[in-house]
Request: fold
Amino acid sequence: MKVQGYLYKGDSSQRHTAELVYSSTGNLSCFMEGHLAFASPISEVTISDRIGNTPRFIHFPNQAKFESADNQSIDDIVKTSSMQGFITPSLVNRWAHSLESSYRVIAITLVTVILSSWAFVQYGLPHFSQELAMLLPAEVATKIGHGSLDLLDDSIMKDSELSEERQQALRQQFEQLKPKYTDADHIALEIVFRQSETIGANAFALPSGTILFTDDMVTLAESDQELQTIMLHEIGHVENRHSLQQLIQQSGLALFIILVTGDVSTTSSLILALPSLLLNAQFSQGMEIEADQYALERLKEHNLTGQHFAAIMKRLEASHSEKIKHQEAKPKSNQSSGNISDYFSSHPATQERIKRFETEY
Reply:
């Protein structure tokens, strides 16, 4: 049996046209230009597995390597030598080639992978992220989110222009709203203020427990009671560790893509997009309901009503809608980031949520 291919002698990367001959004595002989280069028992060589129609390699003990795309001839040699008792081919390898050669198996496998990936991303990853976020000790959770604010400050945030007196007054109100815990198994809460033309009026919670209010959000409120209801809502996000869940979920998704596609560049893309991920508040409906419920259950004890929350949410929705219209009216050359106001609108004020605050409290 003969196989045409190329020989790499092992002392350089140069390849040479060669012919491989298998004899009935179980030897593989390699010929170059009609002359015997070397020979070796087939039991002492390593034959790479067949993967579709890609070229295969036969590694010899003298470090030489023979390459050939004539898979059928190599398969015939393996089959014959195994029947003669010179080698024992792996059952797994034989099955693997049979499966790879079946279009039906390939189609079933492809559908299975797609459905399994969709189910994992849609259901498995969110569930895993939630469980992991709640199981992590507060100290570990805080360290994971450490540096989030610095990252935002370096990208889209500026120092607040609110007076120090105004900021201090709001901090004192926030301290009154914070849950009073005696143990250390809770993420420490703090409130900070920043200015951002990018996202406008907004408030959101970072994984570290820092709750950020923009100057525009403070200006949008017609009373401190309205801001206090937003504070309670954001505290609800921290208490349920929603931001941490999102961060774990996004990181898990990037890792899943790397494992499936082998695209390591996804990691660098994730790092570049991290400010967006931190602000991407497209929290699930369940997360928003949980944060709303946290706020609703604590309104009365702080002399607040659902009307305060509903009023500022209506104004917030109108503010973002107006900004989106303004961006859409701009030439496309000025919209490289798309409808960024819509993207960063972290609390979509749906009519159902507003109605719930108006009717229940």
Remarks:
- The CA atoms of residues 27 and 41 lie 4 Å apart.
